[in-house]
Amino acid sequence: MFCSILIFLTVYDELHYDSFNKNYNNIYRVLQEMPFTNKTTWAINQGPLAPALIEEIPDINQVTRCAYAGWMIKFEEEQVYERGIHVDSSFLSIFTYKLLKGNPETALKEPYSAVITEDLATKIFGNADPMGKVLTIYDEYSVEVTGIMENPPHNSHLKFEFLGTIALAKEFGYTVDYWRNSSFYTYVLLDQNANPTIVDNKIRNVLDNKPTLEEGAKLKLQPLSEIHLSKGIEFENADLGNKSFVVIFFSAAVFILIIACINFMNLTTARSLKRAKEVGLRKVIGATKRQLISQFLMEATIMVLVALIIAIFFIEALLPAFNQFSGKNLSINYLDYKIISAFILLVIVTVLLSGSYPAFFMSKVLPSKIIKGASEYGEGNSKFKKAMVILQFITSILLLIGTYAVFNQVSFLLNKDLGYKKENIVYIPVNQKIRDHFDILKNDLLSYSNILEVSRSASFPTQGYTFSNNLWSWPGKDPNYELLIHCENVDFQYFETFGIDIIDGRSFSKKFPSDSMSIILNETAVELMGIEDPIGQNLLYDSSNTFNIIGVVKDYNFRSLHNKIGPLVLFLDNQYGNYLWMRIKPDDIKQTISFTKDSWEAISPDQPFWYHFLDQELENQYETEKRVGIILSAFSVLAIILLCLGLFGLIGYSITQRYKEISIRKIFGAQTSSILFLFTKEYAKLMLIATVIGIPVINYFIQEWLQSFPYRTEIKYLTFIIPVSALIFVSLAIIIGQSFRATRINAADTLRND
Predict the structure, then answer these.
(1) What angle do CA 522, 523, 525 make, to 5 degrees?
(2) 717 class by beta-carbon count within 10 Å (0-12 exposed, 13-18 middle, 19+ buried)
(3) How far apart are CA 142 and CA 140, in angstroms?
(4) Which residue has the higher pLDDT, 302 or 673?
(5) What pLDDT was estimated at residue 673?
(6) How confident is the model at residue 746 (pLDDT cuts 50, 70, 90)?
(7) Which of 26, 473, 589, 690 is the most exposed place for a label (fewest CB within 10 A)?
(8) Which residue has the higher pLDDT, 397 or 480?
(9) Does residue 702 have a pLDDT over 80?
(10) Cβ burial 419-448 (10 Å sphere, 16+ → b, else e)
(11) Same domain for 358 and 456?
């Protein structure tokens, strides 16, 4: 019950993301459905859309734009880099983020104001009061702290350390008033009496008469409650979960509960012959069937309540450790009527699952059957026990194979060839000083023998494009063919640094000044454009800029493996770049980083030096899958333990009931091996039946689950053989062990006592 409650808490948390908001049911995010041939939905919109929605749609009460940003924050001697969001002043009225200090209605009214979280306040100011203090952003902008916010709840899909204003975002260069670019996440608060379906229809064609870049884009509303578990949306920046993992967790909780209930049923019915005399006697003195059923259900209820109390004790003791591992902040409010109702429902379900059959079965005992030895009674009991053992084995098989499949998929994602080298790659976010003196820094770094390559790019490899649109044309293109193409800015050594193969043509080179108007395509772009012999051909961008194709790179995963490789166009940009990349030797890494830091600080002493390793960052993308695998493994082990305990008790009791039979067999010369075979064969048949039923069922669900991954592992025979073999081995060990104990009995003593 402890495990089931813990998993149910996790599932509840996943299904109720953002529910802390008072306006939870009336908040919606605005999505764009793009009219591309490869159908696409964007999470981002144009800057002017928010005020247009307020003006044109009366049912919209308030609206806010959100633009993610990173700030280099300086206050006196303290300097930190943090991620946050530029928002409209209505943000704190739409969402329920608690301000510890400041007025939510006015905190973001002024252009140069900011609200920071309590964690960031402590990091910068320590114990001092931050209110009214002025922060310096990128050594250029002065921003006043006008609010201190309680750290956002863990179940918020928005993650940030500060809130800045849209006015400041405009000064940073965000396209706040520009219809021809989408870069803002737009949220609306509907009027209490508004019908979401009607509003959704009203906003659908709002962009039709706007000067947007892509013609034919349609808007739609996405409920706040659906954001966390959504998938397949481009430009998503929310903290997303995985709906399939929620189903897996819920199934695991149900399976574990079923196994535990079956243990109770089996052991109760196994002991039924001993209680049959009690039942018969009660019936003789006038007990009714209803009274007997009530008695047995009451006994089951008491046991379930005791189990619940013990489970709650363990949950309170172990929940902090589970939260730390899972990255959640689960807790139980025992005064919440929902929690109380859930516990009551859990008790009722558990009592019905575990106690109903024993209660109804034993209440049917007839006193006359007891006098005759209860042979018919035992036969029905035996059939039921076998059915329950089969169900236990099926449940265990589903859980074990499912867990093994999850681990295989996670291992596949972590080890798949991405099309570029990820080992020994260091990346460093750059600032303007570094951009202005990049060649000096690069030459200095390359003078160190352990640094093999240095490059820069605008984007991180798994977010490997700066922008995307459908404004490209090429010879022979169908005018009705709309292809969304991703575009990225790189420099001369980008492909060498990452080991990306040029399979046709050449890379960018300083020998060719014309490369400033040249591009390199990936294989997917060439295929989807239908271009034969692409080298030397021209692509037209936005009907005005012509770019010459000089090379084709082998497809590489420029986004995470949760996304298929799409068409990619790479530009040469030797002026701009957000990341510096180094490929280094694996020797003396500490010394290499120290040298890099010295070179960095010689150019930009006032800016902090932060470095990261690419392979570690890539692994972090699949942290959710890894945690799910580990948690499922722990629960699978527990399920096996429960199964083994049930088998141990059931077989032990069954053998005890058959001591007389075993003694007679021994007197007639039965060997130990034949007695062991007798009991092993009986349970081996049950395991075989469970395997035949369980494998096709779990195979179907694994195949369905893997369809949610663009890149997935193959389902091999070992996926089924290893878990099932482990289950059978452990089960047979228990069966043989218990059976062997039975062969050691003294036959004469047993028959004499009987």
Answers:
(1) 70
(2) exposed
(3) 7
(4) 302
(5) 78
(6) low
(7) 589
(8) 397
(9) yes
(10) bbbbebbbbbbbbebbbeebeebbebbeeb
(11) no
Q: Which residues, at least 6 apart from 48, have a Cβ–Cβ distance to it below 8 Å?
A: 176, 177, 178, 179, 210
**Digit-coded pLDDT (tens) for 238-260:** 888 888 888 888 888 888 888 88
Where residue 55 falls (left for φ over 0; alpha for ψ -120 to 50; beta otherwise) is alpha
Distance from C-alpha of 624 to C-alpha of 627, rounded to nearest angstrom: 5
Are residue 192 and residue 252 in the same domain, yes or no?
A: no
- The count of domains in the chain is 3
- d(CA 113, CA 94) in angstroms, rounded, equals 19
Q: How far apart are CA 647 and CA 734, in angstroms?
A: 7
Segment 444-487, tens digit of pLDDT: 999 999 999 999 988 876 666 777 778 889 988 888 888 888 88
Helix (H, G, I), strand (E, B), or coil: what is residue 490?
strand
Question: What number of CA atoms fall less than 13 Å from residue 580's CA on the CB side?
Answer: 27
* pLDDT tens column, 616-663: 888 877 777 777 777 777 777 887 787 787 777 777 667 766 767 777
CA-only gyration radius of the chain, Å? 33
Residue 327 structural domain: 243-414+623-753
- Please identify, among 181, 197, 227, the residue that sits at the C-terminal boundary of a domain: 227
Between these two residues, 747 and 290, which has the higher pLDDT value? 290
Domain match, 537 and 593 both: yes
Q: Which residues partner with 42 through β-bridges?
A: 32, 234
Helix axes 623-657, 375-415, angle to 10 degrees: 160
Tokens 């001369």 correspond to 492
- Alpha carbon 222 to chain centroid distance? 20
Helix segments in 424-476, DSSP class H: 432-436, 438-446
Residue 376 pLDDT level (bands cut at 50, 70, 90) = very low
Q: How far apart are CA 419 and CA 154, in angstroms?
A: 35
Instruction: Please report how many Cα atoms fall inside a 13 Å half-sphere around the Cα of residue 152, on the Cβ side.
Output: 22
- Is there a domain that residue 75 lies in? yes
Give the H or E element holding residue 720: helix 717-743
Q: Which has the closest alpha carbon to 398: 253, 241, 265?
A: 253
Same domain, 562 and 453: yes
Distance CA 491, CA 486 (A): 17
Rounded average pLDDT over 565-594: 89
Q: Which residues contact 338 (CB under 8 A, 6 or more apart)?
A: none
- In this structure, the answer to whether residues 639 and 558 fall within a common structural domain is no
For residue 203, the tally of other CB atoms under 10 A from its CB is 22
Whether 343 and 259 share a structural domain: yes
Instruction: Identify the three-state secondary structure at position 570.
Output: strand
Q: How many CB atoms sit inside 10 A of residue 281's CB?
A: 12
Tokens matching residue 444: 């200095």
Q: E-strand spans in 483-563?
A: 485-490, 502-505, 518-522, 538-541, 545-553
- pLDDT above 50 (res 162): yes
Q: Among 162, 179, 87, which Cα is nearest to 124's?
A: 162
The pLDDT of residue 276 is 66
Angstrom distance (rounded) from CA 250 to CA 7? 7
Does residue 669 or residue 246 have the better pLDDT?
246
Which pair of tokens denotes residue 458?
């605008």
Q: 435 vs 60, which has greater pLDDT?
A: 60
d(CA 730, CA 737): 11
What backbone torsions phi and psi does residue 206 show, to the nearest 5 degrees? -60, -35
Which residue in this structure is represented by tokens 């053992």?
389
Antiparallel, parallel or unpaired: β 134-137 and 141-149: antiparallel
Q: Please, what is the angle between helix 337-362 and helix 2-15, to 10°? A: 140
Length of the chain: 754
